[in-house]
Write a structure and sequence with these properties.
This protein has about 140 residues and is α+β, with helices and mostly antiparallel strands. It has two domains: about 30 residues; about 90 residues. The strands form two sheets. It has a four-stranded antiparallel sheet. Strands 3-4-5 form a three-stranded antiparallel sheet. It is elongated and about 80 Å long. The termini are far apart.
Amino acid sequence: MNVSRGRLKIVLLASTLLVAALVVCGISFAGYKSDSNVQCYPAYSYAAGAMGTARNSQDSSQYIGCSLQGYAGSSPTSLYCFAQNSAGTYCGCGSSDPHLIAVAQSMTSDPYLYFGWDANSTCSWLRVEEDSYYPSKQP
């Protein structure tokens, strides 16, 4: 009879520890958030950052985005992506590539943007990332 009580205590203790471990792990990963300030690397022809983080930053320097331009009765014909970090370093590129324009058209209001350019400041790639862990823009 003592053996059964001993086993029962071990099983209860092990179960309690397992539940506690699952609760702690669940809490540590739930609601992950990431502020991502604008990064601008002219020497590497690369810029990145979260629009929400830039908008919500305490400094008045950083921003990031892309704009599309078109004419009446036609699809957008040009793309321009731009970024400035908190130190005031500016990066930008332009393109008329329809694939990059299509990527830019997929943006919602709060994406994380990555973009790169060649020696002529022509955009060579654009990545739009939509994740729950980047902040939304606040007024």
